Amino acid sequence: MTRLAQVGSLVIGGGAPVVVQTMTTTDTRDVAATLAQIDRVVERGAELVRLAVPDEAAARALRELVPQAPVPLVADIQFDWRLAILSLEAGVAGLRLNPGNIREPDKVRQVAEAAGSRGVAIRVGVNAGSLDPAILTQYGRTAEALTRSALKEIAWLESVGFTNLVVSLKASEVRLTVAAVRLLAQRSDYPQHLGITEAGDLESGVVKSSVGLGILLHEGLGDTLRVSLTGPPEAEVDCAWEILRSLGLRSRGPEYISCPTCGRCQIDLPALLKDVKNRLRDLRAPLKIAVMGCVVNGPGEAREADVGVAGGRGRGALFVRGELVGHYSYEALPAALEERARHLAEAAE
Question: What is the Cα–Cα distance from 171 to 147, expressed in whole angstroms?
Fold first, then answer.
């Protein structure tokens, strides 16, 4: 159990549900493009969005972005503490500070005082790739170094009475990240933001993030997370929700059960699954949907789902909560499944 942090309208830590966040990839100075991307990731389930603030123009663009964004925004500050002050003046709900590249205690304190007077949260974000040189020299690229770097900055912030904090320790290596998060949890009760940084693309990045974040969340560690991928932020949000769903922590939208296919499959199952997912992308009800391709496990899995299909030779059987409701051609299956799923979703509202 951690203490609470307040980020705009969101509560992080203290037993609150794990918050899903992502980061925009647009040029923050391009207000229209950035707002459009924020809207897209929020539609997919992002509850908190972070934006890069590399210069004064980006900081000033926040004045337009903050009031129009549907979720709280966090300004990501690197190197220049003055950009943090400008972001606070623009009305952001949170700041992300990197102790590895903002090393002057007096400047950090000024930011903390300005954030505290506005009720803005600060995330102390420590990355293995940008550690304070003195700590790196003494401890190497280790969990101890990451933890000490975070605790050093926490002490600076606490010295001016600032405690509305979230802390993150990240590395591109799963084992180093897991070790660091565990170690910090032993030494601090501030809520933690989880992530495997620079995890990779949609293949390797999803695997590394799922393994690392899955271990920590299963142990009860972590209060908010971002899946860091070399790809669109919408994919980050989708993956985050799947990780949380797999552990029974949170659920949003349909859960899909589908077989890996084998020589017994006599329909184009990958195409069928893709079609069904595209049709139901806007659905928010936590339905279980089975798209199965053969007669071995197909009927059983389809019966256990809220809505399921079991494929045969160019056709399939459709089940709704255990009951067989009809047989359809392969071409008609997606629409039939969609109709039944939407009916259940409407009934659940």
Answer: 12
> Which tens digit of pLDDT belongs to each residue from 138-153?
999 999 999 999 998 8
DSSP H or E segment with residue 227: none
Sole residue written with tokens 């089975």: 290
Q: Which fold has domain 255-348?
A: Sulfite Reductase Hemoprotein; domain 1 (3.30.413)
Q: Which positions ≥6 away from 323 have C-beta within 8 Å?
A: none
Beta bridge partner(s), residue 292 = 310
pLDDT at 100: 66
Average pLDDT over residues 66-73: 98
- Who has greater pLDDT, 316 or 30? 30
Q: Do domains 4-246 and 255-348 have the same CATH topology?
A: no
Q: Span 4-246: which CATH code?
A: 3.20.20.20
The number of angstroms, rounded, from the C-alpha of 196 to the middle of its chain's C-alpha atoms is 11
pLDDT digits (tens, 9 = 90+) for 320-338: 999 999 999 989 999 999 9
Q: Name the band, by pLDDT with cuts 50, 70 and 90, for residue 99.
A: low
Closest among 81, 86, 87 to 109, alpha carbons compared: 81
Domains in the chain: boundaries: 4-246, 255-348
Nearest to 46 by CA among 213, 245, 234: 234
Q: What's the DSSP call for residue 18?
A: P
Distance CA 86, CA 205 (A): 33
Name the token pair of 207: 């695997």
Look up residue 44 and give its two tokens. 């997919």
